[in-house]
Amino acid sequence: MLKKKSFNISDLRREYTRDKLSKENLTAEPMNLFENWLKQAIELGISDPTAMCMATVDNLGIPYQRLVLLKSFTTNNIIFYTNLKSRKALQLLNNSNTSFNIFWSILERQVTIQGIAERLSLKEDKDYFYSRPKESQISVWVSHQSNTIPNRAYLEEKFLKMIEIYSKESVPFPNFWGGFRVNIQSVEFWQGRKYRLHDRFIYKIKKNNLWSITRLAP
Q1: What CA dihedral angle connects 48, 52, 58 and 63, to 10 degrees?
Q2: Domain tally for the chain?
Q3: Whether pTM exceeds 0.70
Q4: 22-45 per-position pLDDT tens digit
Q5: In a domain, 6, yes or no
Q6: What would the pLDDT profile of 78-123 be if each residue is shown by its tens digit?
Q7: CA 20 → CA 44, 104, 173, 198, distances in Å?
Q8: Does 78 lie in the same domain as 102?
Q9: Annotated catalytic sites, by residue?
């Protein structure tokens, strides 16, 4: 049984006073505002500014979350890469609906992106795979994501062996690895404000490929 702690986490709180978000600050398309916010996060030196908490569901509707890294984005989509036999990839192939949350604590901001995932082409997968450092290419072969392994030494031994094998030649492309393009359906921007009266705006894509913008209560 967990012993009672000497502190009360329900009393942990802070006021958000760094900035505000008004309708005048918004851009016509959400990813332009996202780009502005991301640039500010990078300029401030925030660790892992492209880290996104990604949600998927299994065939029973049970949700799962994990962090992935955003690798590129356009006006209408975002892209990330993963092992195609991982839990998240298999869940996406069964149910392509997904969402991502990016939180920049120092900026007191978060962005939530909801969309529908589709696989990238083999060319896109290969182009990105061979743009990565060789060590990262090899780690794809070493780690069969989500599979059970005996210990860490198992990974390290496989990694060192493959580093030696491919020290002077190209790493073969793994056909079990690739990317997903998530076609954006909505983007919500959250700016922390004092007294928990946060600013929230949500963009939703319409049939004519224009965006509707609505302010939400915090």
Answers
A1: 100
A2: 2
A3: yes
A4: 999 999 999 999 999 999 999 999
A5: no
A6: 999 999 999 999 999 999 999 999 999 999 999 999 999 999 999 9
A7: 18, 14, 46, 8
A8: yes
A9: 196
